[in-house]
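Fold this sequence, please.
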Amino acid sequence: MGVRDLVYRLYEHRLEASLSPRAIPRHVGVMCDGNRRWARSAGLADVSSGHQAGADKIFEVLQWCRQTGVEVVTLWLLSTDNLARPAAELEPLLRIIEDTVRELVAQNWHVNPMGALDLLPADTARVLKDAAEATANQAGLLVNVAVGYGGRREIADAVRSLLQDHATRGTTIEELAEVLDVEHIAEHLYTAGQPDPDLVIRTSGEQRLGGFLLWQSAHSEFYFCDAYWPAFRRVDFLRALRSYAARQRRFGT
């Protein structure tokens, strides 16, 4: 091990030792951004190489989350806007996502797909649904896999589900309007029954949400990291946790 690696490991251990178990976020949302730019910066002509490197990074990050006591992780892998990409790029990306989800199942992670699965190709949607069924009773860290996901679409789907639910009970629109509150909508989100994200991490240097967990992130803390997703290191993750722990959460006040 070189001097540089030794210094890095010492710094990493120091960061980890500084974290209090009481200050670990229960739910971490991750915007896995920068795969294509990482591939180009590495001189790779095929951007799918970046997507594969990003998929490989997922398994490292999940281990880090489990080691530090995080209970829920939401990974944004493909937005609804991404579905409009050229087929030459989208199809290899979908195959990588499918393989990643299968490997999550093989490694016994509890997988919960979230997104507009009806917008996805049938094969991709089936892999996601099969993963949810196969791991439904799996204990431990819950992994939300956001594919074909958009925050506005999620809210629209939640309202639609809410209206359909009450329609089956014979509730009129007027009666629903009298009692409707935020909790009614929250019960129909893709993350229903889960804690809202305490910390949202976005890689690649971009400092915007882009529609990620719009409803759930109202009181989240945000951490923006310059590293592209495939180059995201454990020390970057620990820095995000340290930043989160140092904040005084105000919950909108």
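Strands lie at 27-31, 72-79, 110-114, 142-149, 199-202, 221-224. The mean pLDDT is 94.
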